[in-house]
Amino acid sequence: xxxxAQIDELIRLLEECYPDPMCALHYTKDYELLxxxxxxxxxxxxxxxxxxxxxxxxxxxxxxxxxxxxxxxERIIHSCGFYRTKARDIVAAxxxxxxxxxxxxxxxxxxxxxxxxxxRKTANLILGDIYKxxxxxxxxxCIRLSNRIxxxxxxDPVKIETALRKIIPPDKSSDFCHRLVLxxxxxxxxxxxxxHVCTIAHLCDMGRGKV
Length: 211
What we know:
By secondary structure, the chain is mostly helical. 60% of the residues lie in helices and 0% in strands.
């Protein structure tokens, strides 16, 4: 386990490498990020970004999404996989946001988890990116890197979220997770981690054995 000073250094080095951490999904409205994240389940962000322009142009507000023909939503999002379930969730969530939250995506974990198709990963992304609240987004990159580094020794997303909340400063947490994604894509890939060029290798359980 890293010391508090080492965790501070880890955060600082990732900040230097990735000064502008941003979600890769394209959106202009709060609910667009919510639905883009739903579409990204078992699908790449790049693929989702090719789908959402047509979806949000054809259905430019929550009212139109709530009234949409699910079959038409399925047609638009077909290439992102699990399209029937995702289409149903989008229409149902749009309906609930209008009926229960006045047309505004809710800003609490409890309320977000009530929305169809929304789990803790999506809820944390909304809390962090839309509402700038402390959030730990546990995706595949976070799971892989936090275990390789030695921040956790568990694969369960909820346990990882709990563990990281204890050691990552709340005001750094959301951006820290975005930086793990960027580092996971650029350097610490799933199959061939480039430990020899990794700026945090000396702080990493896996990296220390390879540099």
